[in-house]
Amino acid sequence: MTDDRSARPALDRIRVGSAPDSWGVWFPDDPRQVPWERFLDEVSEAGYTWIELGPYGYLPTDPARLTDEVGRRGLKVSAGTVFTSLHRGPSVWDSTWAHVSDVAELTRAMGARHLVVIPSFWRDDKTAEIIEDAELTTEQWGNLARGMERLGHEVRERYGLDIVVHPHADTHIDTREHVERFLDATDSGLVSLCLDTGHYAYCGGDSVRLIEDFGERIGYLHLKQVDPEILADVVKNGIPFGPAVQRGVMCEPPAGVPALEPVLTAAQRLGVDLFAIVEQDMYPCPPDRPLPIAVRTRRFLRSCGA
């Protein structure tokens, strides 16, 4: 009898990592989050090599100190993360760039090449307050597209980084329809996607199909799954993303959807090197919960060939 795993093609173009999000970290400073030292210790213990910076200010922002802290744990940084509201037009550029430049400078100093760009929420992820309309106007779509192109150009010219825009629940880039509209409106040479399998499934999307249809625009992956039963209740009752996470809508693989092995196989077929960073939204969570999940998740991804 042969081991089915031996017949699977090695996913040699996929570089697996994890992120502070998988340790319940959503904010630079929050008493319900684990200290950054513990995150670094445990992500290394779980068997990961690559990490993201997470919310700017959670990990040390001094490049020399952070280089020492990650290096002695055998870790490397794949990306930084920024938050934007570029659909609001040119008036927000200066404040956006002040935030982006700080993160980009640290990201470059850590040897990473990507900035994950998360659009602003229309519904607050902590308070569930409705901030603005869930649908953009034609003018706002234009602002968003031109703003992201400008961001992609400036980040590449000044810092040598590529932006990867993250479709995300409770933002204006969420469903297949909105993702397609965004891709059609932006220059493929300046703007790529960070496909988050959990968020895309949360919003009704098919990750494998998106990879097959828009493979040239996929620059980065976040790996997570959703619990379909909890998601059905979230959709039925219009529950905001933050409370949905507290209900456990983002679950430990392989218990949820989408199945990650077909996603990784589709990504491998693109023939390019891609980061696949595990992010299981768990804010807030007990401090002893993340490590066992991270260990099991890393073992599961190895069973998939990653």
Automatic annotation (TrEMBL):
InterPro entries: IolE/XylAMocC-like, Xyl_isomerase-like_sf, Xyl_isomerase-like_TIM-brl. Residues 40-302 form the Xylose isomerase-like TIM barrel domain. It holds the Pfam family AP_endonuc_2. Signal peptide: none annotated. It comes from Streptomyces xinghaiensis. Gene3D superfamilies: Divalent-metal-dependent TIM barrel enzymes. This is 2-keto-myo-inositol dehydratase. It comes from the Bacteria.
